[in-house]
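Hi R.,

Here's the chain you asked about this morning:
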Amino acid sequence: MSASNQPDAVTGVVLAGGKSLRMGCDKARLPFRGRPLLDHMLDLLAQGGSDPCVVSGLYPGYRCIPDALLDGGPIAGLLAVVEALPGQRLLFVPIDMPLLDPRLIRRLRIEAPHAACVRFADFALPMRLDANAAVRARLHAIARESGRRRSVLALQAAIAVESLPLGAGDAAAMSNCNTPAEWDVLTR
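And here is the predicted structure, written out as tokens:
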């Protein structure tokens, strides 16, 4: 049975298609706890119950979906994945959030089952998103925009998003890193 045929099935997606310009190297290949960050993030998705898992970007040896637009930011990855997996329920995590807890991923996967988009309050990512026709159409429209109008927050503002509360101490798990200094602090 495919992921879309099971009522609680969610395909996990690691958003890793960016250029990592501020980091100065490919974030997906950074070592985290003895292995590449990409492997760590895929394992977090699997531990949270997302199966199967794919990577938004191009990484030989992984099940990948290349970004739909050159230099399109996260929207390029979202668009490519929803087009490649129409009708599926998807759970997107950014490559640069290694402290995520599988418990939080499970919450995104199962809470608010009727919502087309679910995230945690005050955080655009990670999020669960249904790749339905309305979401795909909205993503196409947002991909043609520029600046802040082409963002995950713009997508969430345009569709009905359900925001889940975070528990005490969970905000630290939502830390992401975009620069070598942030990576250094996060990995200490």
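One quick note: Residues 1-5 have pLDDT under 50 and may be disordered.

Cheers,
M.
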